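Deliverable D2.4 — example input (structure tokens):
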């Protein structure tokens, strides 16, 4: 058995197409409009928000005599007035590696604004079993011994099944797949696996709030604590209202503007 630690990789994010945005601004008659957004995700959110009222500059809409200058002030107002729909335009793409099926099962309950690609354990045959070990188990020598012994026994079960059905000599991939899927039923829920996960910034905020909460499960708190470390620096204005408190050694990401 191999002990692992959940890992968070930010592998993609929204990019603005400058030529297209410039052409749109020229179409509107505000070709000189710029913003100080620290990321394309926040620049795009600002543009999508401002187009609603034509609030790029005063007078463009005769009803608008003043506009909020700057991306930080603009997005802070979006959060305070809970107009979170503009944050749905920007996407972030992650790969979470060495996370358990306990974690992935909880993660996929979040449906709105997400996209998911999960490692297939019908196709990928298990050999060595890896797992992250929760604090309560790690703190007890006896529990650790039981945990590791159980994993080693289950690894042996995988090897015994493979030998029993001679899967290494199987030529038909379809049968291999059926056998692999049958064997995985004997794998533990804590098994380390990989999931590709994308979401928009509005969804990201909601999930950071509910999954770093001390009432959430330890592993998902750990993973979304790591997610926050990555996104906080990258999208400081879209997440500028958050305060962080450490509870049980993990960050609890809180705001007065929950679920914008
Ligand atoms: C601490 C904790 C404990 C939990 N315990 C359990 C448990 O014991 N058992 C269990 O089954 N689940 C449990 N869950 C999962 C929980 O019930 C939700 O399924 C999960 O958090 C997904 O969040 P969401 O409902 O906000 O949906 P998301 O998909 O994240 O959607 C975000 C928001 O969009 C809106 N929305 C999304 N889909 C719809 C829709 N179809 N119709 C209308 N509005 C929609 C809602 O406002 C929703 O809050 C737990 C979650 C947490 C954080």
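Example output (designed residues):
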């Amino acid at each position: 058995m191999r002990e692992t630690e959940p890992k968070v990789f930010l592998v993609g994010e929204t990019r603005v197409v400058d030529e297209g945005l410039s052409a749109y601004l020229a179409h509107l008659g505000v070709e000189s409009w710029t913003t100080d957004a620290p990321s394309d995700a926040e620049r795009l959110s600002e543009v999508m928000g401002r187009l609603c009222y034509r609030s790029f500059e005063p007078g463009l809409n005769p009803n608008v005599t003043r506009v909020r200058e700057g991306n930080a002030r603009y997005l802070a107002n979006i959060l305070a007035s809970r107009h979170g729909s503009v944050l749905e335009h920007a996407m972030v793409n992650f790969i979470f590696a060495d996370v358990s099926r306990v974690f992935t099962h909880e993660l996929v309950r979040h449906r709105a604004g997400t996209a998911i690609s999960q490692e297939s354990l019908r196709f990928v045959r298990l050999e060595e079993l890896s797992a992250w070990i929760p604090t309560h188990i790690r703190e007890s020598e006896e529990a650790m011994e039981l945990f590791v012994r159980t994993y080693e026994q289950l690894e042996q079960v995988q090897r015994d099944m493979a030998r029993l059905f001679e899967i290494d000599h199987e030529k038909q991939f379809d049968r291999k797949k059926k056998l692999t899927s049958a064997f995985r039923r004997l794998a533990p829920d804590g098994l380390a696996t990989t999931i590709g996960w994308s979401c928009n910034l509005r969804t990201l905020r909601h999930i950071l709030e509910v999954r770093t909460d001390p009432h959430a499960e330890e592993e998902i708190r750990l993973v979304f604590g790591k997610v926050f470390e990555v996104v906080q620096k990258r999208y400081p204005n879209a997440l500028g209202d958050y305060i962080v408190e450490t509870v049980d050694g993990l960050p609890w990401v809180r705001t007065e503007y929950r679920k914008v």
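The two ends are 43 Å apart (CA to CA).
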